[in-house]
Amino acid sequence: MRCERIDATVVSRPKTSVEEEIAHLRGLDLKGLRARWHSVFQRPAPADLPRHLLFAIIAYRIQADRLGDLDHETMQVLDRTDSKETAAAMSAQKQTRPSGIRR
Q1: Which of 3, 65, 95, 100 is 20 to 30 A from 47, alpha carbon to alpha carbon?
Q2: Across all residues in the chain, what is the average pLDDT?
Q3: Does the residue 1 lie in any domain?
Q4: At what angle do helices 18-26 and 51-67 cross, to 10 degrees?
Q5: pLDDT score of 102 more than 70
Q6: Segment 10-48, tens digit of pLDDT
Q7: Is residue 8 in a domain?
Q8: How many CB atoms lie within 10 A of CB 36?
Q9: Domain limits at 91?
Q10: Is residue 2 part of a domain?
Q11: Stretch 62-82: mean pLDDT, rounded?
């Protein structure tokens, strides 16, 4: 629980849920999302990033901070994935690999 002091009285408030934070983000305009970006990442948002990407990246970071980010193995797979490889090619590769066998 978060506590805050109001007129020398400590008031306990439950932590805002991830869903509530994301709902709040949805209502922010571009300027508000840029301000939220700055508070989350401690630096200004990239000037050319559109609103929908600002929202998605901030929402992801909030969820990852609260619920946990991707595991190490998943991060390695994503790092190895060629950015030019299409989703269809990745899907075909996955389907041809016998289940239960890891690389």
Answers
A1: 65
A2: 80
A3: no
A4: 170
A5: no
A6: 555 557 899 999 999 999 999 999 999 999 999 999 999
A7: no
A8: 19
A9: 18-96
A10: no
A11: 88
Q: Give the CA distances from residue 94 to residues 26, 76, 84, 97, 102, in Å, rounded to whole numbers and listed in that order.
A: 35, 16, 17, 5, 11
DSSP 42-71: SSPPPTT--HHHHHHHHHHHHHHHHH----
Domains contained in the chain, number: 1
CA angle in degrees (0–180, nearest 5) for 88-90-54: 85
Q: Identify whether 90 is part of a domain.
A: yes
Half-sphere exposure of 91 (CA within 13 A, CB side): 3
Q: Higher-confidence residue: 53 or 100?
A: 53
Q: Tokens 């990246």 — which residue? A: 57
| pLDDT the model gives residue 1 | 46
Two tokens at 64? 């990852």
Do residues 37 and 56 make contact, with C-beta atoms less than 8 angstroms apart? no
Q: How far apart are CA 94 and CA 60, in angstroms?
A: 25
- Residue 12's nearest CA partner among 25, 1, 24 is 1
What's the one-letter identity of residue 69? D
